[in-house]
């Protein structure tokens, strides 16, 4: 049985303690820095209505929202058919954890985050704290447990995310009119606590989450840790609220100490400075840093522009756009976490499968410049610049936009847009008589383009390293491997 006293005992047993001073000793798992590319999976009850995005459970109760009108037109009155009534429809009859694991491995990913509980409060795992979970309802199978087994069988690192914090207010709009969300509500109810929604940027917004809710959040997260032993945890945005600070430090110390018991380093991915810098992994949603960072970080983005879960109106990204994201991130000392959204029945959409296969095919050729690489002395060159921050627009790159990584004796130059004339110029490798001016003084021994078997020649002069590959034909970024003496 989970108790506050038991949590505090583990949190204080060392090597960590529940304060930022101690948690600042956090050490990044070695495998994470080497992995570079992971998969996020948003699959849950919201995948059944499959309308607009994964916030359906909130938006269907907002009276001027498209989801509200859609819900009434499709399912009827909110008093007769509420969000909970999707549960019997969530049968996951085509779910195959082994197939998922093989597809993700073939895509070249090294780790996977499954959403264990989204804002809607429906748990994708077996829980002793709530009956509203996939073992007791809906699919009636332990989705998270099956995925853990399948992923680890393919040597994929198993990770999990919790979005429970936002449940404090996520169903609150349903109390503004006649619906199936109504008082009295008590702990244990599916929709509880359904409080008024705050400004999501307000760090001190009222009403503050109650002690009862905070303890419930803590207990659910501890249960997730102990039952499934994820190698990383991911928290969505609302844990930066002031009310979570004490519980978050307690939870982090508990988790990191559990990791020490298991004999492996674990970590927490967080947004918006919810945790003190240095106590976990900095996360950026749908964005990047403009320059290489001295700390390791991760960006999470989706395979589509408009949703994290499967819907019937998905706006998919091009595979090249996703590869651009991956290259930008790894050149700046980070990892890319790419989200896919299975259908409500558990099948993976054909377009997702195609994109993942194309990424995997590209990584099979170019992965040596990706996995286990490090940033070079500069992240890249070229006219196209990105802006630091979340939710940044996609850039249009040119053949002059080049990003760098380094590993062993080789510098890898990623040409983001393959040149149509077969000519590449890397200006950062220019020669100069003035030893104080150029960025590079090393001796180039060999130049190759990964996966390219045509004619290739190269020269090095005051303008840069000039590569000619007249037979080059690629729709995706190319990677020049420059081996040094």
TrEMBL record:
It comes from the Bacteria. It is an enzyme of class 3 (hydrolase). InterPro entries: FUC_metazoa-typ, Fucosidase_C, GH, Glyco_hydro_29, Glyco_hydro_29_N, Glyco_hydro_b. GO terms for cellular component: lysosome. Gene3D superfamilies: Glycosidases (3.20.20.80), Golgi alpha-mannosidase II (2.60.40.1180). It holds the Pfam family Fucosidase_C. Signal peptide: none annotated. GO terms for biological process: fucose metabolic process; glycoside catabolic process. Keywords: Glycosidase, Hydrolase, Signal. Residues 8-368 form the Glycoside hydrolase family 29 N-terminal domain. Residues 398-474 form the Alpha-L-fucosidase C-terminal domain. Its EC number is 3.2.1.51. GO terms for molecular function: alpha-L-fucosidase activity. Alpha-L-fucosidase is responsible for hydrolyzing the alpha-1,6-linked fucose joined to the reducing-end N-acetylglucosamine of the carbohydrate moieties of glycoproteins. Belongs to the glycosyl hydrolase 29 family. This is alpha-L-fucosidase. It comes from Fundicoccus ignavus.
């Amino acid at each position: 049985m989970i108790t506050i006293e038991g949590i505090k005992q583990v949190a204080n047993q060392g090597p960590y303690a529940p304060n930022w001073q101690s948690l600042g000793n956090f050490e990044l798992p070695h495998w994470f820095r080497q992995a570079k590319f992971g998969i996020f999976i948003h699959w849950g009850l919201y995948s059944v209505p499959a309308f607009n995005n994964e916030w359906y459970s909130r938006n269907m109760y907002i009276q001027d929202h498209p989801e509200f009108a859609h819900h009434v037109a499709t399912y009827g009155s909110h008093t007769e058919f509420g969000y909970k009534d999707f549960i019997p429809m969530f049968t996951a009859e085509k779910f195959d954890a082994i197939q998922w694991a093989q597809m993700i491995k073939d895509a070249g990913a090294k780790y996977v985050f499954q959403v264990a509980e989204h804002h809607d409060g429906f748990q994708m795992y077996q829980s002793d704290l709530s009956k509203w979970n996939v073992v007791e309802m809906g699919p009636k199978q332990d989705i998270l447990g099956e995925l853990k087994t399948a992923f680890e069988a393919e040597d994929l690192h198993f990770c999990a995310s919790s979005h429970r914090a936002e449940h404090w207010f996520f169903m609150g709009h349903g109390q503004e009119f006649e619906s199936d969300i109504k008082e009295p509500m008590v702990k244990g109810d599916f929709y509880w606590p359904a409080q008024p929604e705050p400004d999501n940027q307000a760090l001190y917004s009222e009403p503050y989450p109650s002690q009862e809710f905070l303890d419930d959040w803590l207990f659910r997260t501890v249960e997730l840790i102990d039952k499934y032993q994820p190698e990383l945890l991911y928290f969505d945005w609302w844990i930066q609220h002031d009310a979570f600070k004490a519980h978050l430090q307690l939870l982090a110390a508990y988790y990191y100490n559990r990791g020490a018991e298991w004999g492996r380093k674990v970590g927490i991915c967080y947004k918006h400075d919810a945790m003190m810098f240095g106590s976990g992994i900095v996360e950026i949603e749908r964005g990047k840093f403009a320059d290489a960072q001295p700390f390791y970080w991760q960006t999470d983005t989706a395979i589509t522009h408009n949703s994290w879960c499967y819907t019937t109106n998905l706006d998919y990204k091009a595979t090249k756009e996703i590869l651009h994201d991956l290259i930008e991130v790894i050149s700046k000392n980070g990892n890319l976490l790419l989200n896919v959204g299975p259908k409500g029945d558990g099948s993976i959409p054909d377009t997702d499968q195609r994109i993942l296969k194309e990424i995997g095919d590209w990584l099979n050729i170019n992965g040596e410049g990706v996995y286990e690489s490090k940033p070079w002395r500069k992240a890249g060159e070229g006219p196209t610049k990105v802006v630091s921050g979340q939710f940044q627009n996609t850039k249009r790159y040119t053949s002059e936009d080049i990003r760098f990584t380094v590993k062993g004796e080789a510098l890898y130059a990623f040409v983001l847009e393959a040149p149509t004339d077969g000519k590449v110029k890397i200006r950062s490798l220019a020669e100069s008589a003035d030893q104080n001016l150029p960025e590079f003084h090393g001796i180039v021994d060999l130049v190759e383009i990964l996966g390219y078997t045509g004619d290739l020649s190269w020269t090095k002069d005051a303008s840069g390293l000039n590569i000619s590959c007249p037979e080059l034909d690629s729709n995706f970024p190319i990677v020049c491997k420059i081996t040094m003496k």
